[in-house]
Amino acid sequence: MFLNPNPAEIRNLLENSRTIAVVGLSPKSERPSYFVASNLQHFGYKIIPVRSAIKEIMGEKVYEKLEDIPFPVDIVDVFRANDQLPDVVESCIRIKCPAIWMQQGVVNEAAALRAREAGLMVVMDRCIYKEYVDLMT
User: The whole model's pTM is what?
Assistant: First the structure.
């Protein structure tokens, strides 16, 4: 059974991360992914949008897939359907990302366990923005 890291581990991840790739980041300011990413950007994180068919979001270059990002990322934050998580996890493993964060409502226990077995820190069904506000402010 999957269990999320404890609050101290999550706080440590947030304190020691600087670059967050956001898979499924919407260019629409009313969408939850935009709200979360823009706040993370305001908190000082470098946001890397990952989405197809768009060139720029929030002043940042958009990459079509994680493997296209030419530098390391600390966290992959996922706003995608549950059934797309296995592919995202495999991409995280390929790029050697140390952590994957599956947003609130994004749940796939098999994908989460696969990521953990591959050595990634995994947070599932939690909002990274809410966790930041609760643990870091």
Answer: 0.96
